[in-house]
Task: inverse folding
């Protein structure tokens, strides 16, 4: 069948009414200007709203990860146990950037502040009134949006700290604060919109500048305060800010008592849009009326003939734009529009496949399977590069860059999975904490580069020792590694650990210096059949305690928990 050119369909009749068509097109575009601009701003606000919610969720995750990680850090626990404020600050302060938090508050077992990383000179007061601290003193790990003694608006997580005897010695509260100029400026740059933080109905941090000053200490309008504070609901709508109309979004932050004690607000200014829209419409109407009478009849028949497949294609494109990637493109046209429909179907199919592969990859990563990534060979061009970049980002988030084995985050996912599986099946679960002996001296003597070689060698040795698909190892941090052996009894665990210790001792570390060609490890082993009353942190702490017994007993040895 001979294709009819879309150009021939439209160019020949359009030439006859060229002037009228141009005028009509101008008025049509001008009339659409205001609606499209408003639509784009609304879409931007929706995207910014989702980004803000993701930011708050990530802040909560970072707060919890920081507090939990430091609560099982042996040096940190020892410093808290000794109530050594100077050492506490030395250990905790450098980890702010590592975990993406702004501060730590460390208390003793009575809720009395031992140290604040964000206010080092302020200590000795009680923060027992903070819900996250009270929960932690009761043995629970909880995160809240909460006001504190120093920080007014933040998300914070309290985690109990136990010494090696299992006694509660204090609380670590880690937080991400939102009440600073740095926070709102960072979000403004990210979202390209004005950002404000309210404490109650009072603006305490903002990017809005008036008369050369940040507009803090200004009040929320009663209408919006009724919705957001009294009713604890999100608000989206127009608002007048310093005489400028904004499209706004207000999100209440609920504290432990389910009170809307603080608010995040986003605003996109609309100044100039109304005037431009009115002027454009006025000019478009004047120009369009001149040509409308001449062209309307001809254009009616022309557009009727050619717009049907375009309308259908546009409807299909809207489905794809709204995330319906499984759509079948139903444009039947023997011209360029038909070709465009075929191409659009290919795009939808490719995006749908990429979406499915990403979901499969994420599901596997959640299970701790760090070797499952997107098969980029089935994609072409930029899609292949995109798939590769997504896989690389997933790898960065789950694999330790230096050793090439799973990182702490992957371990946490796998531990949660295996713990629940062992609990359901009432089968034993083994955790081993492995530490390279005298690694600091090794680094100081042979250099950090040689130390990295040693870490890689030990990691490779551990990985090769795993015989089953369910066995798992990860880098715990520094020179420490962790191993999980599901469905393994204590005898099998000790045998595995002893063989691993011997394999590391006999492993040859590449080096020009013979003394640097070998290291040893100490291993703490804990075997447990989980019950409903069992605690993950206690499971880990028992292996950690066994590791320190092994080190104190002379190193290069294996010690089981409870020995």
Result:
């Amino acid at each position: 069948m001979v294709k009819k050119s879309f150009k021939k369909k439209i160019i020949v009749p359009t030439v006859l009414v060229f002037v009228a068509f141009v005028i009509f097109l101008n008025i049509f575009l001008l009339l659409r200007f205001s609606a499209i601009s408003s639509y784009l701003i609304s879409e931007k606000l929706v995207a910014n709203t989702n980004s803000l919610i993701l930011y708050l969720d990530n802040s909560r995750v970072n707060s919890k990860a920081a507090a939990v990680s430091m609560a099982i850090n042996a040096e940190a626990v020892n410093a808290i146990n000794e109530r050594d404020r100077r050492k506490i600050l030395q250990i905790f302060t450098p980890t702010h950037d590592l975990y993406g938090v702004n501060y730590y508050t460390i208390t003793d077992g009575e809720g009395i502040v031992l140290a604040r990383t964000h206010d080092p000179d302020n200590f000795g007061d009680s923060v027992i009134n903070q819900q996250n601290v009270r929960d932690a003193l009761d043995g629970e790990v909880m995160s809240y949006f909460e006001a504190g003694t120093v920080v007014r608006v933040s998300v914070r997580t309290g985690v109990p700290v136990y010494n090696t005897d299992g006694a509660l010695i204090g609380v670590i509260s880690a937080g991400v604060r939102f009440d600073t100029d740095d926070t709102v400026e960072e979000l403004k740059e990210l979202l390209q919109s004005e950002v404000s933080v309210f404490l109650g109905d009072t603006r305490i941090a903002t990017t809005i500048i008036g008369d050369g000053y940040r507009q803090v200490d200004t009040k929320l309008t009663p209408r919006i305060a009724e919705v957001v504070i009294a009713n604890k609901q999100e608000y989206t709508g127009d608002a007048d800010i310093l005489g400028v109309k904004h499209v706004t979004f207000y999100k209440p932050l609920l504290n432990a008592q389910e009170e809307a004690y603080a608010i995040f607000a986003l605003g996109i200014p609309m100044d100039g849009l109304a005037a431009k829209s009115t002027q454009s419409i006025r000019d478009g109407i004047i120009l369009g009326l001149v040509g409308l009478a001449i062209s309307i009849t001809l254009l009616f028949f022309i557009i009727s003939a050619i717009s049907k497949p375009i309308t259908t294609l546009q409807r299909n494109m809207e489905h794809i734009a709204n995330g319906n990637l499984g759509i079948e493109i139903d444009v039947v046209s023997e011209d360029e529009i038909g070709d465009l429909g075929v191409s659009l179907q290919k795009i939808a199919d490719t995006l749908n496949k990429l979406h499915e592969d990403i979901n499969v990859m994420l599901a596997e990563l959640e299970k701790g399977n760090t070797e499952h990534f997107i098969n980029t060979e089935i994609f072409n061009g930029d899609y292949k590069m995109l798939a590769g970049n997504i896989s690389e980002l997933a790898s960065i988030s789950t694999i330790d860059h230096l050793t090439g084995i799973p990182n702490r985050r992957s371990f946490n996912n796998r531990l949660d999975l295996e713990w629940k599986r062992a609990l359901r099946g009432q089968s034993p679960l083994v955790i081993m904490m492995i530490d390279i002996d005298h690694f600091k001296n090794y680094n100081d003597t042979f250099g950090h580069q040689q130390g990295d070689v040693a870490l890689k060698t030990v990691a490779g040795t551990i990985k090769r020792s795993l015989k089953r698909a369910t066995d798992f190892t990860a880098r715990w941090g520094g020179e420490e590694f962790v191993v999980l052996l599901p469905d393994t009894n204590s005898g099998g665990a000790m045998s595995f650990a002893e063989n691993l210790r011997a394999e590391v001792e006999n492993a040859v570390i590449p080096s020009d210096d013979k003394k640097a060609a070998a290291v040893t490890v100490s291993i703490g082993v804990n075997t447990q059949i989980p019950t409903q009353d069992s605690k993950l942190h206690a499971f880990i702490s028992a292996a950690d305690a066994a590791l320190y017994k092994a080190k104190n007993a002379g190193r290069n040895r294996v010690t089981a928990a409870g020995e």
The radius of gyration is 31 Å. The chain has a mean pLDDT of 85.
